[in-house]
Amino acid sequence: MGTTQQQHHATITRRAFASGLATIAIGLGITGCSSNTDGGSNAGSGMNSSSEGAEPTTVRIGALKGPTGMGLVGLMDAAGMFAASDAAATDDGSSGDAVATDTPVGTDPAGIGALENDYEFTLAGSADELAPQLIQGDLDVLCVPANLAATLYQKTEGAVTVLCVNTLGVLDIVEAGETIHDITDLAGRTIYSAGRGSTPQYALEYLLRENGIDPETDVTIQWASEHAECLAALQADPSIVCMLPQPFATSALAKVEGARIALDLTEVWDETVAANGGNSQLITGVAVARSAFASEHPAAVEELLDAYAASVDFVNDDPSAAAQLIEAADIVTAQVAERAIPYCNIVCMTGAEMAGALTGYLQTLYDADPASVGGAMPGDDFCYGA
Length: 386
Known about the structure:
Elements: E1 10-13, H1 14-18, E2 58-64, H2 67-71, H3 73-78, E3 89-91, E4 98-100, E5 118-124, H4 127-135, E6 141-145, H5 146-155, E7 160-167, E8 171-176, E9 190-194, H6 199-210, E10 220-224, H7 227-236, E11 241-245, H8 248-255, E12 259-264, H9 265-275, E13 285-290, H10 291-296, H11 298-317, H12 319-328, H13 334-340, E14 346-349, H14 351-368
Parallel strand pairs: 2-5, 2-6, 9-10, 9-11
Antiparallel strand pairs: 1-5, 3-4, 6-13, 7-13, 7-14, 8-11, 8-12
Helix pairs in contact: 6-9, 11-12, 12-13
């Protein structure tokens, strides 16, 4: 994509691409996925139907190097984010030159078509890097853990609104062995994970407590700054276990001898909630917008949600093609992405369906620990279009 600058996080834009200045960072995401995609993509259709007559604007989007970024790659491509040099290449065997293989990169494989608005994308390794940019007005939309969205709502006194749920249950327990078959088997073990203070921590602690394990005394949880630390720890000491999101759980299977996915925590969540008489889903990620931006640019928000839904459908329906865009975005390799996508709960859930699912999930977290959602449940204006 022209010149790629390696930095902690970077912004890529359609206009910048046209001038050869587009950049994207290599980083790590904190979200992951599971196989159920019943949430679907229900944002609607007709990308430009309501934007006629509206003044075009630039939509500045932040996302993480994980399923939230993976679900956006169709939109990124439609917005002109990828150059031919981003496509996979092979040696032609004669001249030694790299020859681009057949690739969907740059062809709008999601079928989104012409966009009325411009789009900028900032990909980073953690939500902590990007949340201040949203609050300060340097981003318009940000993909964040669901509980962080609620916390931002409280901290900004309602200045953010959730546009969609983009990732359902994402977390897996990975071990190098055959010792863990039930959540109760984690008692007495050392668990490595990234994501302290967000969905991974609160989901894990909830599941442990509800299954009779005190996270303070019955297990040792080592919070790492990134997933690579967890993998390194597992390679060094096979007796530990890791909690990893997809696609990093899939990547671990190839990097750690004997590694396997021992528990799908989405399934454990469903079983635990049902046993308690509840009805909430495990929701990992959402896309939030600055409320001021959403109110000032409703047509741009509608175009974004329509294009986002089309992008998500493309990723889920054609993992092979989507994987090449994911590699072009420097999220993970195409090989890992293609293997992981079928197990990723990448969705675009909007409106009343979003509000019902998100409220149920946040209520479960609030009942267990009010601080996990910012100390109070969000107000009725939390969910856009609900």
